Amino acid sequence: MTPGQVDAKVGTVQGDLAKEMYGSLIGNRVVQLMAGFISMVVISNYQYAFTLFTPGMRQTFVGTPYPQIALVFSLFILFETWPVPVAGIFIDKFGIRTLMLIGAVLVMLGWVLGGTMTKSVFDLYIYYGILAGTGAGIIYIATVANAVKWFPDRRGLAAGLTAAGFGGGAALTIIPISSTIASMGWMGAMTFWGVLQGVIAIAMACILHHPPEGWKPAGWVPKVSKTIAQTKVNYSWQQTLLRPEFYLLYAMFLMVCAGGLMTTGNLSEIAKSLNVQNAKILGISIVAFTATLTGITNAFSRIMWGMISDKLGRENTMALAFAVEAFFIFLMTQITGNPMLFVLVLPFVFLSWGEIYALFSAITGDVFGPKNASANYGMLYTAKGMSSIMAGWGAALVAAAFAGSFQVPYYIAAVFDTMAAVLAFFALKPLVRARMAREK
Fold first, then answer.
1. CATH assignment at residue 173
2. Most CB contacts within 10 A, which of 49, 62, 88, 419?
3. How far is residue 58's CA from residue 140's CA, in Å, rounded to a whole number?
4. Do the beta carbons of residue 295 and residue 169 sit within 8 Å?
5. pLDDT (tens digit, 9 = 90+) per residue, 378-408?
6. pTM of the entire structure?
């Protein structure tokens, strides 16, 4: 049977077109998903391992106020997100491989230069913040959008699995990186891991491809769903910017990002403010041990909530997940001096936070169409950069004003999560459904 012919059991074999163009291996969407997942794993440490380097940075840059060190993290997130819309436009127009290679080289340079050429915190702003941040953003948007394009039948699950690499990759490496820092110092560890992660990212860039124009999974026919509203129109990035639902999604993304980003970037300082920083679990630093657990739950949350959203709908799932997150963020204000609660509560914070990277990417494909998903989700993803200013540098400043306590920032984050849950159900859902009804 030739590509495009119909088989009675499986329907139109459109999947053969991808294999004909790319080969049976590269043209396999599962291979594409795995390559995206691995790419996410190797860039996850740029965000989630930052807190492991901060004690060494404080010793190296004696006298530098902590908010200035925390600004490295905020700049990383800012440059991981704000250049992404431009990268997304280029990815949708010219393909994924070239942009992926650029991103891989940038993340490698970011950590290698950070570990070998750093003389001041300002140098880290450039190497870690700008170079590594931009590279990680390119890889992130490229892989998530690619998953959405290859899996129109399981967008929530595919986006969740891909994003799980970013959320959970650090779970595999947090303890090894912590050990490397102990033996080589923070600069030596940054150099070593920068080279290793960069090489793997380059290898994955050589595998990734978008599906051919008009490609659909073999035998799949789009169906009308009562829970998931999917547009029949592929909105360009210019058209997306004219839609009110984009700005509602943007505000929700910004608010829900805050609590998790604040915890990620300031975990060592949060442990200190809660008087648990010197505790050890199974002989491992409580920060490294907890960061490993949160990496696991962070990854699982993206898969779990992504699958749930394929059943319950994106907006319903958002409302539920954000409300649960508000509860656990609030609990963070109640665990001072209790190492066991620190270890128990934080994984649940990330179990109900990491899903935002699956849900918002999936709903972007649903609401604005898959064709321009890289550019459209890239624009939405900049909300994470805006949130990082509040969650990294801003939260550190507020904590400094309260004798180093992160209690007030956590109260603010809990309010944000509650507001986002309400908006998802009572504002976003009716707005999106009304527009979809008009498209019919």
1. 1.20.1250.20
2. 88
3. 29
4. yes
5. 899 999 989 988 888 889 899 999 998 999 9
6. 0.79
